[in-house]
Amino acid sequence: MRTNGEYAQHPKGAEAQFAAEDRDELLQYELTARQEELRNRTRELAEEKFRPRALEWERTGEFPWENIQALADAGLIGMSVPVEFGGGGGTWLDAAVILEEISRTCYTTAMAALGELGVQTRALAVYGTEAVKRKYLPLIAEGKLICSVCITEPDTGSDLNALQTTATSSNNSYLISGKKALISRGDVAQLFVVYVRYDGKPGSSGVGAILVERDTPGVSIGEAQPTLGGESLYEITFENCLVPTSNVLVEAGGLTRMLTAFNGQRTLNAAISVGIAQGAQDAAVIYSSHRHQGGRPINEYQGIGWMLADNAIQIEAARLLVRRAAARAGAGFPSRYEAAVAKTLANEMALTVTDNVMQIFGGHGWLQKNSAERYLRWARYGPLGGGTPQVQRNGIARHLLKSAEGML
């Protein structure tokens, strides 16, 4: 990006030079006409199909299969699957747009679609063998295969160097043993992307990922553990599960590749936070227009108007950071730094915005029949999944210090 001083000599002035030479750079986070259509299509589907039953999915704890099928029928759930395997061949920005619109109306459905639009599908497409891609990706595009990433263990969260689940080589196969905790979609996933330690190798040099199908002998799923947002999490045990070496997704020493792939999940987690905040903000604008005090709508009072304005500022800032991380990923994965910045701001923004919305609703926001309370609950997951804001800040700081080494 050029500075204003570099435009000073342009005969038509700085603004003309700026527009002529940097328009593409400025608009790289704007949606194309195709993406606008994609957003509108997703919003229409979400409003018609997902919003009316959002609380029902939470209360029953059921997986929203019919919503996943509706997304598949609309060509949305397979957006991240390459075209040659029956998908839409879309970008990370496409996925972020879709998830933002879904999460405006139904957190449960957004979380159900996250993996198929995110790291599971992308990891299979980038790291999987040709046989793996042909076996699983078409089913994902059709909404018939749900994948689950198994990283967290009872005693291991973000510290993957302490990973204890093992993959021990045995006659062109691997024996998988270990326990995973807080796993999304354990009740319905047919394929698990399991982070493992190969052959007891210590530290990051031994960490990789392997695919384990649900019906593999030795796989057992624990009881559902309901969450504040309505989604249930599961404990999954792998006890001497024998899988072929062809199921290896990332070999030992591939931790960097795996973490790079997970930057996409962080970016999409942030997109969900933006969608939740936008949904809450929309509800607050409508409510404050209809709610009267002192003979006029409450949004005519400066105290309420400023809260709405502050919400809008924070949502727009977070959205632009999410789009930057997604748009600049290209055909690969978002950068660690940009994903961390976007996720940290978006997660914390959603908590602030939904809390403001609860305050705007006042006592009525405390009622479950109104949407303020559910948006506040939904927003709380973002900072917990995919690495906490504290972990993200550690990564951001390391990036800054490393970048500064050459200046010292």
- What is the helix content? 40-55%
Unreliable stretches, pLDDT < 50, 5 or more residues? 1-27
In CATH, what is the class of the largest domain?
A: Mainly Alpha
For the record, the CATH architecture of the largest domain stands as: Up-down Bundle
| Rg of Cα set | 23 Å
What pattern of helices and strands is seen along the backbone?
HHHHHHHHEEEEEEEEEHEEHHHH
Largest sheet: 9 strands, mixed
Characterization of the model:
This protein has 408 residues and is an alpha+beta fold. It folds into 3 domains: 30-145, Acyl-CoA dehydrogenase/oxidase, N-terminal domain (Butyryl-Coa Dehydrogenase, subunit A, domain 1, Orthogonal Bundle), CATH 1.10.540; 148-253, Butyryl-CoA Dehydrogenase, subunit A, domain 2; 256-403, Butyryl-CoA Dehydrogenase, subunit A, domain 3. Helices cover 50% and strands 15% of the residues. The protein contains 13 helices and 11 strands. It has helices spanning 14-26, 33-50, 54-60, 65-73, 92-103, 107-117, 119-127, 130-141, 255-290, 302-327, 336-361, 372-379, 389-404; strands spanning 147-150, 166-169, 173-184, 191-198, 207-213, 219-221, 225-226, 232-244, 248-250, 292-293, 296-297. The strands form 2 sheets. Strands 1, 2, 3, 4, 5, 6, 7, 8 and 9 form a 9-stranded mixed beta sheet that branches. α2 runs parallel beside α5. The radius of gyration is 23 Å and the shape is globular.
